[in-house]
Design a protein that fits this description.
The chain is α/β, with parallel strands linked by helices. The protein has 13 helices and seven strands. Helix 2 crosses helix 13. It starts with a helix and ends with a helix. The structure holds iron/sulfur cluster. Iron/sulfur cluster binds next to helix 9.
Amino acid sequence: MNRRAMFLEVLGIPAEWVPRKAPVTAVAEAPLAETIVMAEASEVVKVAAMAEAAESVKSVDSTEVATPPMTADNFDTPDAGDAAEIAETVEAFDTPARAAAPAVPILRQSNPEQDGRDAAIAAMDWPTLAASVAGCTDCGLCATRTNTVFGVGDQRAEWMLVGEAPGENEDLQGEPFVGQAGKLLDNMLAALGLARDRNVYIANVLKCRPPGNRNPEPDEVAQCEPYLKRQIALIKPKVIVVLGRFAAQSLLRSTTPIGKLRGTVHTYEGIPVVVTYHPAYLLRTLTDKARAWEDLCLAREVLNRAGAQA
Ligand code: SF4
C-alpha cells in the first residue's frame, strides 16, 4: 500500500482520491485600504515561480517523500473514547456564531505609542520576546487567560504553522494545538516527516485564549500580531502553513473564503504562505482531510522548490 492509500485509509476516507489540479495563477488581492496599518506586513502577489510549484503539485506522489517510513501509528486517529473531547473541540471552532462572523482584517490607526511598541517587539531576541508575551497585558484577553501560548518547536525550522488562537486545552497547557486537533495535526505532519519537537514551529496569531473560544476582535489581533511577526522574522521559515479561516484571513488581510484561499501560494513578509483547514474542522469533515493533504503537499513542493533555488 503506498503512502497516499495508507493516509486515506487511516483517516477514514474510503475512496481513492486524486490530487486536485492546483491553479496555475496566484491570486492578486485588491490593494489594502489606506487605513490598514502595517500594510507591509502582508501582501498577496503573483509569484510566477510559486504558481509553477502549484502546478507541479498534480504530479506529486506521496511516495516521493524522503522522510521516515510512514506507519499506521503515524496516522492514528482518535478513537471512540475521544468522542467527547472531539465534539467539544469541533463545537468550539464550528459554532453557528463563528461560522457567521467574518474574520475581519486588521484595521488600526497608527500612533507613536503603538509604533514604538511594535518597533520594540520587532527588535526582541527569543528570550525577551517570550518574556514579553508571558507578561503581556496589552489587550483584554490577558484578564481571562490561564496561560499565554507562545509557540512550540524548532526555532530554525523551515516549516512554520500558524493557527488562530489558543483553545481551552491550549490555554490550560500553554502549548498550541494540543488535544485531539493537535493529535490530528501531529499525525498529518508526521506524514511529511515533520514533528513539533524536531523540525517545525507552531504558533498562533493570538497568544491568549478568547473567552468561550469566540472570534478574536480586530484590535486584539492588531495588538498581538507583532509577536507573531517577530517570531516569523527570527525563524525565517521557508514556508508558512496557515491553519483555518480566521488565521488565513488575518494574516493575508483578506475576506476571501478559505476555500478560495487554498491552492494558491500567498506571501507574508516575503515568505510563501499556503492555506489549509483547521485541524478541529477536519475532525468533523473527513472529506476535507484529503484537501488538507493536498495543501500540505503544495507546501512541501514550495519548500522543495525554494531549497532547489537556494
Ligand atoms: S492576546 Fe496578545 S496582545 Fe493580548 S494580552 Fe495576550 S499576548 Fe498580549
